[in-house]
Every structure is written in C-alpha cells, then in structure tokens.
Amino acid sequence: MSTLLNQLTAALKASDWPYVELDGGRGVRLGLQTERGVMEGVVTVYEDRKFLVCAAKAPVSAPPDKQAAVAELLNRINYALLIGNLEMDPRDGAIYTRTSVDVEFIEVSPPFISNLIMASFRILDMNIPALVNVVFNNMSPEEAFAKTQAPSQN
pLDDT band for position 54 (50/70/90)? Predict the structure, then answer.
C-alpha cells in the first residue's frame, strides 16, 4: 500500500517539480516562480486522517498599519473563491493561501495532487496585484478587489 507521502513525491517527480521532504515525513516544501514573484509552499500529509493540505506564502506581507485593510481584502477574495482560502497571520502580517482535501474515499493520482498544489499557487498568484495595491499603493480593498476581478486581470 502506497502512503500519501509516496503518492505526493511521485506526483512531484512526474512533474519535475523540485521539493525537499520535511522532517519526520510530514510532507514537502516547494516553490514556484511566476512573473509576480517567488512563492514558497508546503504540502502537509496527514496519513492518519487521509488529508493533504497545501499552503503557499505570498511574497508580500501586511505591515501592522495595513492589516485591517488587507483583512478586508482577503475577506472579499475568500467570498468569491470556489476552493481554498487566503489568510493572514496577525502576528507578522504574512499572507498564505490554503487548499486541502480529504482523500479517504477517492483515488489519488499525480494530476489530482498537482491540481491541489497549483490551486494554492494560482489563487495566490492571481491576487498578488490586489495585495500590492492595498499594501503599497494605498488602494482601498474594495477597489483592489474589483480591479483583480476584471477579466483582463486574470
């Protein structure tokens, strides 16, 4: 029987996606470079609960004076998302996206795992312009969200 970690690493190898295994076989650390920045991610495996969780960190953080505006922006984005979510750590303003899935009763395949990982990175990448507009350009969360949702922005 193949473990979730084995399935995860096999999927990453099949995609030629570099990764580093986390201590204790809990998952992997990986990254993605896009035109909007470098994003770091972690895929955590919960073998006992049959969960896969992918979290990716934004290349921008919210300083204390911008956290309320960023929280409003994230709420607007989350309301529109079909899967996953964006969240902010109030201690340091770090912004993450998270996608997860319970795989207990489904067949896990390399494309399935790749789609889960790419969903986290894509959600983050698509919303970096809005984050930058709120954090650095003093744009309102409402305006930044509306601009990101425009068809030409996606």
Answer: very high
40, exposed or middle or buried, with CB in 10 Å at 0-12, 13-18, 19+?
middle
Q: How far is CA 131 from CA 68, 114, 116, 145, in A?
A: 12, 25, 22, 9
Which pair of structure tokens corresponds to residue 69?
Answer: 């505006």
Q: What is the DSSP letter of 50?
A: T
Interval 59-75: pLDDT, tens: 999 999 999 999 999 99
What class is the 4-153 domain?
A: alpha beta
Tokens of 111: 């494309």
Written as six digits, the tokens of 23 are 């201590």
Residues 29/41, Cβ–Cβ less than 8 Å: yes
Residue 151's pLDDT band (cuts 50, 70, 90)? low
* Angle (deg, nearest 10), helices 141-149 and 67-80: 40
CA–CA gap between residue 91 and residue 72 (Å, rounded): 17
Can you give the residue ranges of every domain in the chain?
4-153
Name which of 72, 56, 84 is nearest 134 in CA terms.
72
